[in-house]
């Protein structure tokens, strides 16, 4: 049969609804100007009642009812949009610790006993003055007014000013009858002397006590007031002239003092933030003689992070929208080019509204989900929109939207499921905010894809009805040519590429082990912010800006065993960790340090000594140090400026080696333990999350393709991307934040999407009768624009986080955007030669028989292509072969000629012979 003739189709066979050369799928309302035939034929496709047919039919019906879709979209948007009001911004320990973990429970117990975060007010004494000069009559009044104001607020648990600490010492050396020997301090010191087993040591104790008595008696009793510099000097300094050891938590150096305000324990984020604001407001207007005051603390840091989340969430969203709009205007040369941005915007409202209803919190990590989902959503929307343009401009389908659905919907569905599986791998993290991030992405992406498909279908169907897209060959454009060149490696590179992929992946495993993890929340925020400057000032002035709390419980906190344990425990830890634990503050250490005398035997205070001290302690000291109702004592160490890893070592040492006597327990808690708990949770299975995501995606690809080879081909670029992400991080020397370090599943999701679309598009071109090389080049020429624009959208969606002032988000945006770009580039460069090499061996597109054949042939001198169609007709197939066209066929994966000796199809549109020749290998 001459190639210019077209045999009649079998009248008993149903029309192919996806055949672009048939009018069977044409929209009845479409204008007659739409040409029913296109420049190339469509191969076999699923019938309407086949796999996916019902979904495509449903989407197609919705596309023809644009008015109904608009009303439903508005209602759904209003309902789900209300869920945005239910989104909660959180920065508490629930983001870092599992609520059922022992560390979290211990911290809840600790805060219920002794209060929550500590607000620290630093008093920096001016040059030429010292701590004695801090207690002028004016300053004493300021301290007392401040104490009264803060004690009256229910959001404050306790307040210990420098004056409070000094008055505690004053109470210890006074007696009701005026006899110094009847004072609590004298009784305690005389008791220690009598219990000293070494006579020489006891004698030295007596000499030290006499020296103290002499200093005290040198000041007339009437002048023993805290506004007298001589009396302040006696109270503040020991017999050597140094600041008393028991007062160093409140007078860290001779030129500094600090007030410790303990906020209400286990308070909500808003209540804790308001408590911090109360303390800041109370101290901000005060002016002290010889000193300046500055207030800061962890509560201020967390409040500022929370405030940033509320404002930064919208700011990042606005920047993302602006950049995406610019990308679409500049690079996406199609009609209604901003439509993907609009439909994805609606999808984001649906996704985050649903997250609000479900209760997914917005933390410093999950806030990154907004630009990420926007970028991935634009990626998917551009792919679909571009496919519609392709069907209309290149193939002139009667219904380009339906044809696009038939061709692209399975690939989008597979890519979406693969991405969701990769995101769900984050659910295995031990860090709650990382799990929330995975939940948000896994929930949001399918919602956005559904919104994209439905709204684009309705919008573009309406557009094509009113004003059809005119034919145009865009395959010679710069984007299409770029994609062809990227994939132009000769097929002889296939084996080296596979070897390189495995080597890079293994190299990434080794590189990952050398990366450092930054889990200190102080490093997550803007280092130029005022709160960080204040914390750094506090640390530079006093040597510490954090604390390690230990709560000790026993049947009687005032018995000898408990007092002895706390005293010996504090001494042992200060001796074992001098750089990490600077000093200790508790009711027991106040007395035990007072009892210390150089070159004497260590004698621990008795329970009676501690009870005596408690009776004369100011009320705020009592609340901060003892909880009589729950039989608990508080011991607080000021920690040094070491890393969380060092603090974690201290905490682990305490847990592993401290063995209290029967009936006594000592539990580490407080801010340092929360930080080390985050470090432990984060490091426990961080690397495994990437492997879980990779394994889940690979299994899905094997099950879908029913081919191990196709699945392996799809993951080779993914292996390169995952390995390079760790290698790049090691080479540039960045510290991994919790967000950056779990970027593996995100990279896997994005790279798998692109490899999936490339492989399935290759199979689609093969089902049309093109050879392996021509199929790759045709796919590149036709989809190059979509792939590059969608790739840039995905990269920009992550890179927009670089505009954040939080290093946690900024570093994630920069590093992961680079990794995503590498991942997508590896897909475009590595996958094409692998596909050609494997397909020529019959491993990708398997031969099949008995399927429908649809081959396009161009008769010389004619502008239209004629369709040669047959239903397993050997004669027609023979004629197709004799005319130089490849065989067609069909099986589950698509069929057609394959192997090195398979006949080659006509050149694909937009692919010049020179381009094909460059790939012969």
From TrEMBL:
Q: What parts of the sequence cross the membrane?
A: 311-331, 338-358, 364-382, 403-425, 437-458, 488-511, 689-705, 712-733, 739-760, 786-806, 812-837
| Low complexity bias: start-end ranges | 1-11, 20-44, 901-921
Region listing for Disordered, in residue ranges: 1-53, 868-921
In which residue ranges is the amino acid composition biased (Gly residues)?
Answer: 886-900
Q: Which is a Pfam family this sequence falls into? A: MMPL
Topological type in the membrane: Multi-pass membrane protein
Compartments reported by the entry: Cell membrane
Compositionally biased spans, kind Polar residues: 871-885
Tell me the keywords, alphabetical order: Cell membrane, Membrane, Transmembrane, Transmembrane helix
Supply the InterPro entries for this chain.
Answer: MMPL_dom, Mycobact_MmpL, SSD
The SSD domain is annotated at 348-462, 711-837
Q: GO CC terms for this protein?
A: plasma membrane
**SUPFAM superfamilies named among the record's database cross-references:** Multidrug efflux transporter AcrB transmembrane domain
- The name on file for this protein is Putative RND superfamily exporter
Organism expressing this protein natively: Frankia torreyi
């Amino acid at each position: 049969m001459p190639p210019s003739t077209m045999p009649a189709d079998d009248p008993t066979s149903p029309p192919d609804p996806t055949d672009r050369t048939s009018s069977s799928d044409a929209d009845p309302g479409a204008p007659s100007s739409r040409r029913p035939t296109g420049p190339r034929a469509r191969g076999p496709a699923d019938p309407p009642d086949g796999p996916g047919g019902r979904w495509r039919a449903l989407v197609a019906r919705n596309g023809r009812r644009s008015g109904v879709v608009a009303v439903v979209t508005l209602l759904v948007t209003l309902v789900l949009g209300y869920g945005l009001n239910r989104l909660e911004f959180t920065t508490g320990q629930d983001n870092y610790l599992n609520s059922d973990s022992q560390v979290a429970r211990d911290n809840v117990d600790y805060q219920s006993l002794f209060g929550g975060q500590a607000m620290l007010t630093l008093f920096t004494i001016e040059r030429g003055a010292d701590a004695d000069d801090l207690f002028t009559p004016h300053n004493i009044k300021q301290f007392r007014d401040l104490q009264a104001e803060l004690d009256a607020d229910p959001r404050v648990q306790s307040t210990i000013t420098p004056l409070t600490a000094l008055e505690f010492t004053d109470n210890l050396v006074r007696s009701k009858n005026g006899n110094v020997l009847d004072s609590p301090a004298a009784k305690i010191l005389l008791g220690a002397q009598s219990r000293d087993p070494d006579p020489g040591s006891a004698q030295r104790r007596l000499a030290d006590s006499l020296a103290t008595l002499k200093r005290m008696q040198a000041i007339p009793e009437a002048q023993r007031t805290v506004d007298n510099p001589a009396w302040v000097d006696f109270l503040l300094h020991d017999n050597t002239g140094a600041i008393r050891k028991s007062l160093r938590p409140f007078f860290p150096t001779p030129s500094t003092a600090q007030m410790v305000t303990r906020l209400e324990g286990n308070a909500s984020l808003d209540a804790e933030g308001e408590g911090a604001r109360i303390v800041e407001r109370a101290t901000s207007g005060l002016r002290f003689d010889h000193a300046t005051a500055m207030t800061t603390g962890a509560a201020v840091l967390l409040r500022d992070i929370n405030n940033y989340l509320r404002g930064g969430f919208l700011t990042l969203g606005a920047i993302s929208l602006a950049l995406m709009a610019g990308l679409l205007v500049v690079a996406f040369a199609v009609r209604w080019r901003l439509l993907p941005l609009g439909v994805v915007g609606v999808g984001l409202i649906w996704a985050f509204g649903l997250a609000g209803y479900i209760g997914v919190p917005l933390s410093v990590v999950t806030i990154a989900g907004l630009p990420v989902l926007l970028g991935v959503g634009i990626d998917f929307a551009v792919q679909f929109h571009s496919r519609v343009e392709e069907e209309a401009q290149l193939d002139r389908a009667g219904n380009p939207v339906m044809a696009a659905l038939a061709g692209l919907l399975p690939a989008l569905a597979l890519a979406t499921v693969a991405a969701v599986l990769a995101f769900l791998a984050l659910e295995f993290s031990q860090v709650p905010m990382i799990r929330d991030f995975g939940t948000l992405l896994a929930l949001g992406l399918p919602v956005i894809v559904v919104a994209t498909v439905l709204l684009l279908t309705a919008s573009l169907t309406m557009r094509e009805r009113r004003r059809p897209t005119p034919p145009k060959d865009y395959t010679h454009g710069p984007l299409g040519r770029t994609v062809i060149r990227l994939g132009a490696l000769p097929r002889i590179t296939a084996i080296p590429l596979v070897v390189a992929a495995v080597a890079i992946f293994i190299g990434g495993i080794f590189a990952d082990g050398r990366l450092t993890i930054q889990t200190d929340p102080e490093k997550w925020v803007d280092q130029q912010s005022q709160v960080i400057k204040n914390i750094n000032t506090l640390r530079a002035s006093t040597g510490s800006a954090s604390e390690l709390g230990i709560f000790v419980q026993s049947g009687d906190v005032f018995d000898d065993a408990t007092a002895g344990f706390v005293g010996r425990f504090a001494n042992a830890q200060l001796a074992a960790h001098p750089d990490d634990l600077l000093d200790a503050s508790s009711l027991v250490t106040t007395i035990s340090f007072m009892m210390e005398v150089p070159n004497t035997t260590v004698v621990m205070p008795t329970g009676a000594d501690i009870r005596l001290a408690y009776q004369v302690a100011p009320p705020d000291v009592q609340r901060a140090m003892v909880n009589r109702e729950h039989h608990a004592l508080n011991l607080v160490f000021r920690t040094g400026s070491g890393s969380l890893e060092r603090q974690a070592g201290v905490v682990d040492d305490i847990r592993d080696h401290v063995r209290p006597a029967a009936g006594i327990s000592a539990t580490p808690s407080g801010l340092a333990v929360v930080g080390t708990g985050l470090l432990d949770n984060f490091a426990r299975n961080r690397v495994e999350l990437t492997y879980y995501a990779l394994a889940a995606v690979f299994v899905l690809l094997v099950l879908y393709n029913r081919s191990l080879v196709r699945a392996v081909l799809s993951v080779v670029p993914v292996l390169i991307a995952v390995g390079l992400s760790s290698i790049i991080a090691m080479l540039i020397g960045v510290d991994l934040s919790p967000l950056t370090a779990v970027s593996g599943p995100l990279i896997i999701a994005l790279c798998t999407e692109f490899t999936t679309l490339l492989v399935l598009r290759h199979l689609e071109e093969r089902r049309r009768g093109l050879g392996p090389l021509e199929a790759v080049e045709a796919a590149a020429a036709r989809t190059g624009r979509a792939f590059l624009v969608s790739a840039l959208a995905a990269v920009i969606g992550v890179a927009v986080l670089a505009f954040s002032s939080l290093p946690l988000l900024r570093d994630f945006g920069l590093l992961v955007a680079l990794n995503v770009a590498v991942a997508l580039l590896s897909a475009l460069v590595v996958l094409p030669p692998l596909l050609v090499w494997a397909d020529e061996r019959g491993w990708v597109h398997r031969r099949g028989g008995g399927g429908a054949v649809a081959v396009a042939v161009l008769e010389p001198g004619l502008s239209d292509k004629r369709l040669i169609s047959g239903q397993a007709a050997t004669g027609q197939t023979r004629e197709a072969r004799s005319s130089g066209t490849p065989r067609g066929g069909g099986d589950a994966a698509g069929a057609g000629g394959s192997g090195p000796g398979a006949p080659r199809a006509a050149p694909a549109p937009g692919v010049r012979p020179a381009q094909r020749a460059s790939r012969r290998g």
